[in-house]
Amino acid sequence: MSDSSKRKRPLVADRRYATTKAKPAKRAKPKAKPRRKTVRRTRQQRGGIIGFFQRIVRWCLRLVWRITWRLGAVAALALALMVGYYYTTLPPAEELLDGRARGSVTLLDDQGAVFAWRGDQFGGVVTAETVSPHLKNAIVATEDRRFYRHFGISPRGIASAVRINLSEGRGPLSGHGGSTITQQVAKLLCLGVPFDPAVQTEEEYERDCRRGTIQRKAREAIYALAMEAKYSKDEILTIYMNRAFLGAGARGFEAASERYFGISAANVSPAQAAMLAGLLVAPTRFAPTNDLTRSQGRAATIVRLMNEQGYLTDAQARDAQANPAQLSEAAEARSGGYFADWVMSSGPEFFTRKTTEDVIIKTTLDQRVQKSAEDALKWVFENKVRSGSKAQAAIVVMSSDGAVRAMVGGRNTKVSGAFNRAVQAKRQTGSAFKPFVYAAALDLGYSPNDTVTDAPLTIDIPGSGPWSPRNYTNKYYGEVTLTTALRDSLNIPAVKVSEFVGRELVRQVATGFGLESDLAAGPALALGASESTLIEMTGAYAGILNGGSSVQPYGLVELRLLGEDEPLMGTGGGIGERVIQQDAARQLIYMMEKVVSEGTGQRAAFGEWQLAGKTGTTQAARDAWFVGFSADYVAGVWMGYDDNTPLTGVTGGGLPAEIWRETMARVHEGLPPKPLPMQGPFNNGQAREDRGGRNAGGTGGAVGLLESLLRDILGSGGGREPAPSVSGSDR
Prior knowledge:
Elements: H1 2-6, H2 12-21, H3 29-89, E1 104-108, E2 114-119, E3 121-122, H4 133-143, H5 155-167, H6 181-188, H7 202-209, H8 214-230, H9 233-243, E4 250-251, H10 253-261, H11 270-278, H12 283-286, H13 292-308, H14 314-322, H15 329-332, H16 337-346, E5 359-363, H17 367-383, E6 392-398, E7 404-408, E8 427-428, H18 434-443, E9 451-454, E10 459-461, E11 465-467, E12 478-481, H19 482-487, H20 491-501, H21 503-512, E13 531-532, H22 534-545, E14 549-552, E15 556-561, E16 574-578, H23 582-597, E17 612-617, E18 623-629, E19 634-640, H24 655-667, H25 686-690, H26 707-714
Parallel strand pairs: 1-5, 3-4
Antiparallel strand pairs: 1-2, 5-15, 6-7, 6-19, 8-13, 9-12, 10-11, 14-16, 17-18, 18-19
Helix pairs in contact: 3-8, 4-11, 4-13, 6-8, 6-9, 11-13, 13-14, 17-24, 18-20, 18-21, 18-23, 20-21
């Protein structure tokens, strides 16, 4: 007990301390510190070399990130500045709709209907709101299906294009471009660089605008971004629809729709819209005027795309596939062929070939007559000419005042810019020239019944020696009338008449009638040794028909600017000064009528019509002609090879006369027959006496007209042996 009583009472502090000491089990944190230090030491141990490289990689990544975001910021700033610069240069959208470097020429026929276009045709402004919805949908479906969702460029489209190009074995930027409509507009605008004819040609400008380098593509993308910032989607699409080239000289969908279908772009059907949209990828290749079948095949693909993207119902797509778009009649005639080319070349250059204005030209073309000539030429070559022949032919039909109603410059009638044999080919005329020889004699007072002796003839030509013409038959017919000599196309009488009245007078008459080419100086002038064009010869014969006055063939009636009522110029040709007296012209018509009714041109006759004309065949049959007229129309036909190869078995009275007949028979179909304005010969030379006795020869038709020539000029030369002929004739 004592021991227990002696035990000291614990102090409060001791109890407090004891209480504090009683909590060591709850203090776990100090025990965890060594474990954390252990982990840290473990990482350092695992680090070593690996940790060293890890730190290097982390440092490099941090460096790359710092450089990248700084460069990105700089690039973004530069891009923003460039986009901003282009943004400030962009004009209002309405100023970008007509981007042609030259104007257009619309040609109208004699009834005022459009038959041809030239230059860059712009049919007028269309907008995304006014154009046919089918056309708008066809463009988007074909060119840029995500047009209304992207911001000017399409990374997905570019990646897809690169993948396709690589899969087809091309370079990544060769072939499919992946360009959006906005980028295509940037290209059409040539990044805002205007065309300057003083710096480069139009072809060079177009080539520069279409460059496909990486740098150019990058600039186009930046320009596209600026356009997206400046314009609405519909404004961009409107610019595209008005500036796109769509073949056959059409700029913009309004012009293309008018050209191919004869309707506004606001009214096109799904099939027509698909055909127009299909032109965007290759305007010339898929132009329906070049290959309608190919164009329809391309349109079928567009219809399928429109159906797949929900723009056409299945029923609409089936209808468009079953009824593909067809060309209008004007488009079917393509670009007016040789006649349109001739009118363009004959008009003032600054209003035709190099016009910067939109011009309307009314012409003399009669489309019914034009079709008649084309059909006639085709029929003769299909039925009368051996298959595979390379022979060519040309036809001109005109009125007696020189108004050209039809022109065919070669066998391929659906052309533009081709060699026009009717106006560009200068060929020897052969016996088709002889009417001008007899015109000179008749104007001096001779009668168609006056006679000349058809007998061997030799003429000494200074510097060339003796020249002896021969008839086509190598026969001589003695004393013949002038009418018979022309009817049978006898050479020797023609030469004698020419020599008697004087070559210079013959040249004056021929030149007065419009044969402007250099005429031969020697006696072979009478046999058509000179060269001329078909349109000149036809115009000269028109002068005979109209009573002896010269004619300037013309096709342009009126030229005015689009939107203007007053013409800038009028008719560019017509009847000119008198060349021979009216009585002489009418007697010449009488003589030429005998050529068709009884002579070498009988194959040209048709129906009940009175017809007059003259055949012509040159040496070795290199050229064959028939030129003639009815009371209403004058027509000329030439046939030959472009390389001057001789024709085989062809004379002017053969195939050319048949082409002439087929043409004129079609032209006169439905017209009442009219008599020719011809006049028979006066009796007993009365005409010569009434005109002052200008003829020094005999007083009657039975008197040899050229006996004085044989006696006084040629002397005994008339009996010389004939030398080889240098110019042929025809039958």
